[in-house]
Amino acid sequence: MTVAELIETLQKNTVLTKDEYIALIENAQEADRNLLFEKARTVREQYYQKDVYIRGLIEFTNYCKNNCYYCGIRCQNHAVERYRLLPDEILACVEEGYELGFRTFVLQGGEDLQYSVKDIGRLICEIKKRHSDCAVTLSVGEREHNVYQYWFDCGADRYLLRHETATKEHYEKLHPDDLSFEHRINCLYDLKEIGYQVGAGFMVGSPYQTTEYLANDILFLKKLQPHMIGIGPFIPQKDSPFANMPGGTLEQTLLLLGILRLSFPKVLLPATTALGTIHPQGREQGILAGANVVMPNLSPVGVREKYQLYDNKICTGDESAQCRQCLENRMQSIGYHIVVSRGDYPGIK
Length: 349
Ligand code: 5AD
Ligand code: FES
Fold this sequence. Notes:
alpha/beta, 6-stranded parallel beta sheet, 14 helices, 44% helix
């Protein structure tokens, strides 16, 4: 099959074989990419028209007990200044976000056990009590089934946990020995079984990644059937063991976004901050490749510099109080618009 035929087949069947995914990723030329993005937009618009969903990201702690080699807030990075927001500071971000039109709040943090299970539970309850029209999303890493169940019972709606890579050998090159590939994957299945809307995902161009591994990621996602898929380029972090590794590219990330849209027509697909960091119009280009979500930062401006998973992260300076308006303008510039909505997966509430 030619690459154009692979794209047609993918659009028709929403899946390819592993070898076909590999061929598509390795051989797509300029014309193929344009065909892919055009089809990705058509499919996206069937479910979402020109709407772009926003998620207010609140990075409430950068303490982390883990030491993922790629990450700027890993425990052995002593160059980072640590912070932890108080519940009232988090709630103030939510109030500000609500006024700005956010109807989903993502509480994201490192794996910080100082914030107890009950503390987080109380926060979830309080946000839902104040704003019953909002979704609460958690992104605080790997926990046990009973903890995930408890937070769900407190009212949490969604959970983001990127699988990072679906290939065990690769997982073990990106993480120290005390982190387990199987445990991470099990967490995702636990979350789905409990009833969360689940987000998985991976970095594009992470160290040691091959095209075959990318095909494994897509086929793993086909099995998991998450509601959201977060992908962004790997960006080397200067104090990490991967400081001198090459980063992922705009081109490859856009290609993967297009392939994911055709493989998962209804999925929530963010144009990530990492994509916006490697190119000034990265997020706009992501939307034009099939993405339909953006996740601006609602964290207090004073702590944003400290939550740098990778170098040169955008929206950390004083321009960032304006992210909502900035994104509105950016989306309008390409003919799309932000909507005030929880932005649930189609057919779920
Ligand atoms: N570059 C890009 N993305 C990164 N993440 C962590 N470190 C980096 C980096 N250096 C991603 C991981 C994690 C998500 C919150 O951020 O995929 O799951
Ligand atoms: Fe943050 Fe543009 S989105 S400043």
